[in-house]
């Protein structure tokens, strides 16, 4: 089934915001200029009292916690290991410079609607003012008006190429880095395991 999306709003400067993105039968590779892709990133779960190592910044897949980050809009930085788990489920994580103009930040926030597989949050030390990252894919953007953002989201939000397409992006962790408690366990957040098979055996 082809990608489905609804046009919702035309922003200042002619940039189009989309409020619905659907999974498409898309092969790897993108016609969007500047997209980076990786292959074979680890899907292992790591304990919540540790940090994962990532080969790109911000993360675009790799090791993560058993619990995922609820999709939505956040005003404070997130714990990366939660957000990466959401990427595994098909979410695109849009990170922006904390000092980005307020109107620009609002444009990014407007991309999210309830039920959408999008996370928006600030992040320090980004390689560009705005970076959008899905599982094993990423694009660095000049600002929220960058015309490449819409096509990137249409291709990679709920992509069929992620390890766990259709897995949830809600009902789990909705806190920020500041809210994180290293003494919490996955069970504290509602994660259940069918059996203990090590790092790869956790529930999605």
Task: Map the helices and strands.
Layout lengths: L4 E6 L5 E6 L14 E2 L34 E2 L6 H9 L3 E5 L5 H8 L8 E5 L7 E5 L2 E5 L7 H8 L48
Parallel strand pairs: 4-6, 5-6
Antiparallel strand pairs: 1-2, 3-8, 5-7, 7-8
Pfam families: DUF3105 (PF11303)
Protein name: DUF3105 domain-containing protein
InterPro entries: DUF3105 (IPR021454)
The gist of it:
The protein has about 200 residues and is of the alpha/beta class. Helix content is about 10%, strand content about 20%.
What does this structure look like?
- With about 200 residues, the chain is of the alpha/beta class.
- It has one domain: Glutaredoxin, CATH 3.40.30.
- The chain contains three helices and eight strands.
- A six-stranded mixed β-sheet has the order 3-8-7-5-6-4. The chain has a two-stranded antiparallel ribbon with strand order 1-2.
- α2 links the parallel β5 and β6.
């Amino acid at each position: 089934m082809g990608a489905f999306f609804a046009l919702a709003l035309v922003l200042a400067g002619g940039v189009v915001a989309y409020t619905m993105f659907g999974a498409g039968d898309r092969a790897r590779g993108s016609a969007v200029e500047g997209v980076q892709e990786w292959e074979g990133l680890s899907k292992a779960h790591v304990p919540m009292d540790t940090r994962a190592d990532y080969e790109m910044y911000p993360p675009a897949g790799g090791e993560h916690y058993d619990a995922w980050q609820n999709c939505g809009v956040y005003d404070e930085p997130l714990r990366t290991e939660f957000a990466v788990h959401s990427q595994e489920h098909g979410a695109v994580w849009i990170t922006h410079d904390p000092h980005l103009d307020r109107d620009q930040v609002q444009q990014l926030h407007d991309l999210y609607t309830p039920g959408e597989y999008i996370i928006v949050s600030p992040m320090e030390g980004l390689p560009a003012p705005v970076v959008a990252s899905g599982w094993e894919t990423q694009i660095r953007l000049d600002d929220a008006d960058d015309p490449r953002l819409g096509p990137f989201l249409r291709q990679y939000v709920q992509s069929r190429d992620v390890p766990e397409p259709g897995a949830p992006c809600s009902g789990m962790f909705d806190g920020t880095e500041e809210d994180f408690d290293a003494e919490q366990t996955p069970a504290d957040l509602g994660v259940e395991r069918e059996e203990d098979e090590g790092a790869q055996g956790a529930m999605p």
